[in-house]
Structure formats: C-alpha cells, structure tokens
Design brief:
The chain is of the alpha+beta class and 359 residues long. The chain contains 11 helices and 12 strands. The protein folds into 2 domains: 8-115, NADH Oxidase, CATH 3.40.109.10; 130-347, NADH Oxidase (3-Layer(aba) Sandwich).
Length: 359
C-alpha cells in the first residue's frame, strides 16, 4: 500500500474512531493526494433487519464525516465533504477536500473522539444539570431539538418499553444472524465487532448465551419453553433503562427523507455524543424502537412471524404515547444518558491500513 502523507494520515487515524451500528465501520478511504480523499461508504440493508433502507448506516456515515471534519480542524484545515450524486444510495461516495484555513481554531471536541464509547451497564440516576442539558442542546445546533425523559416515571416507562422491545429483538428469527455475527466471544475488545464483555451481561449469562446462540434451533427452544430471553432483557434493557439520568430523543425539524438528511443527522448526533463525553457522561443508543416503529408506520414486512409484527405495532403505539405528542417520525436518535464509570470493555476500530479502499 502507498504510504499516506501527513497530516492526512493523522486525520484519518482519528476519524476512524467514529461510531457505527454494531461496529460495522461501513466505509473505506481512498487517498488521492495530500489534500483530497474519497470516502467509499456502504450499508448493510441487504442482510441486517436493523439497517432499514440503510438509514442507520447513513447516520453512522454522518458521524464519520463530522469526526473527519473535527480531526482536520486540528491541522488548521476545513474538510469540505461533497456527495457524488452519481453514486448509488447503498454505496455513496463522498469527495473530501482539505482546505487550509488560517482563521480556523482546533475543535475542542477532538480530545473526546477516542474516549467516546457505549456504556451498556447501569449508570447513576443523578439528574443532568441545566447547564449540561444546555450544552447538549447547543451541540446539535438550532436545527435539531433534544427532548428529555428524565423523571422517575418516565425512566420506568422507557425501561419497560426497552424491556418489551428486547423480547421482540431476541425472538426475531430475522435478527438472529445479525446477533450471531456481531458478537466477538470471550473478548474485552474487538476491532470489527462488539466484544461479549461489553454487552452488559454477567459471566454466567454470557456463557449460556454463547452456547445457545450456536444455532437458531437452540435459541428458539430456549425462548419458547424456558423464557431464555428473560434474564438478558433484565440485564441489557430493564436495569440499564431504570438506572440512568434520562432517556432522550433528538428530533429533526421534519421527518428525514433523503440520504443527505440522515447524514446531517449523524453529524449532529456525533457532536452531541462527543459533548456528552466531554461532560463526563455515559451514553447508550436505543435505536431499535425507532426502526421497528418505522417498519410498522410504512407497512413494511420485516418478519415471517405475524406475532412479531403485532408486537412491533403495539410497541410503536407505546413509543408514540411516551413521546407526548412529538412526532416519532422526526426522531433521528433515541438513547439513554447519565453519570457513570467508563466502559471497561468496548469496540475498537480496524487499523487504518484495513480501512483503505482497494480500488
């Protein structure tokens, strides 16, 4: 591989730490020269039930482009990112030009890029302060609005929603191949998956889950006859949902429609998350209720099981009620947040040489 010139090497080294669903890292880089590169992106809609129309991957792409922009600022350069309109939506390409700017100051969020991670375990219930909320709202700008759900009853309602959503997620045959492929077992860290120790489960549950998930027949038997989904839902959904400062939604001014809408949302989400990290807060995305509610809202078939569709319909109605009149279709991100210790197990990233395009 041709050596990458400095400072573009440093910029990509930091940009690669952008978050993506299940640590898929759906992008590759092609360096043209010291001021130009191409981001070759892709999505997982063809095999991942959660990547509806590739929109979750597009949010991740937005987070990458924002991180790249933040990284470039440390070298006194603006990153102008332009989508190639001829590239297919499932494989978009972005031309990135790095433009020296003597007036540009380094973005303060750059120091939090590597430290940002997902915390799937319970946090403290200490409420966020008003200055913290204002900083997080400021992070997403005037275009997006952050809605907080932080009372004890609201935390319980969202925890129960996530607990019941967990049953749909863990009993869905279409989700099983995704779950099986994204977990790296007996691992504290993983370059391209989610390490099992980061899932928020105790050691005994992890050991049983690893055996059960060897094939769908075991999963289905345990779920059907032994309530095999119950303990994982308590540990991964109910307790974390109760023990946090708040659940929150980031809302766009109108329902996102285009890839550009979702990429823009991803850029805002990344600034929110990095700001939270800078405030010493932990965060966990809670995206599946939004994804399944959209399947239902648009009459899209996502499972061969009629019961799964019925469950998703009921969960979507509950989510709408919890949003208290705010349009669910405008929510681009749902999550929980709070004070707590940094995760001791987390996803890492592929080394930069494995993220370079082979073109």
């Amino acid at each position: 591989m041709t050596p990458i010139s400095h400072p573009i090497e440093d910029i990509l080294e930091l940009a690669r730490w952008a978050p993506s669903g299940d640590n898929t890292q759906p992008w590759r880089f092609e360096v043209l020269d010291e001021r130009h590169l191409i981001v070759h992106a892709f999505d997982t809609r063809d095999h991942c039930v959660y990547d509806l129309d590739g929109h979750p991957s597009q949010i991740g792409l937005g987070a990458l482009l924002e991180t790249l922009t933040i990284a470039a600022s440390a070298h006194g350069m603006r990153a102008e990112c332009t989508r190639d309109l001829e590239s297919p939506e499932a494989n978009p390409q972005y031309m990135v030009e790095l433009i020296p700017d003597g007036q540009l100051l380094p973005d303060s969020l750059r120091t939090h890029v590597k430290g940002r991670s997902v915390q799937r375990r319970p946090m403290r219930t200490k409420p966020l302060t008003q200055p913290q909320k204002e900083a997080l709202q400021s992070a997403v700008g005037d275009v997006y609005h952050v809605r907080w759900f932080d009372g004890r009853m609201q935390r319980y309602q969202f925890a129960k929603l996530m607990f019941d959503n967990g049953k749909l997620r863990l009993t869905l045959p279409e989700a099983y191949p995704v779950h099986r492929s994204i977990i790296e077992w007996k691992s504290r860290f993983s370059e391209d998956r989610v390490p099992d120790q980061a899932l928020g489960l105790d050691a005994m549950t992890l050991q049983l889950m690893r055996w059960v998930m060897a094939n769908w027949q075991r999963v289905n038997f345990f779920n059907t006859y032994l309530a095999g989904h119950l303990v994982p839902r308590v540990e991964m959904d109910l307790l974390p949902g109760l023990f946090c400062a708040a659940h929150f939604a980031i809302l766009a001014p109108k329902p996102p429609e285009t890839i550009d809408d979702y990429v823009a949302a991803g850029r805002a989400v990344q600034r929110f998350w990095l700001t939270a990290t800078g405030l010493g807060l932990q965060l966990q995305p809670e995206m599946t209720p939004l994804i399944f509610s959209r399947y239902v809202r648009e009459g899209r078939v996502f499972s061969r099981l009629p019961s799964a569709v019925e469950s998703a319909t009921a969960l979507g109605a509950r989510l709408s009620r919890l949003m208290k009149g705010l349009p669910v279709e405008q929510a681009v991100f749902l999550g929980r947040i709070g004070n707590g210790t940094t995760a001791t197990s987390r996803s890492l990233r592929l080394p930069i040489d494995r993220l370079m395009s082979e073109r």
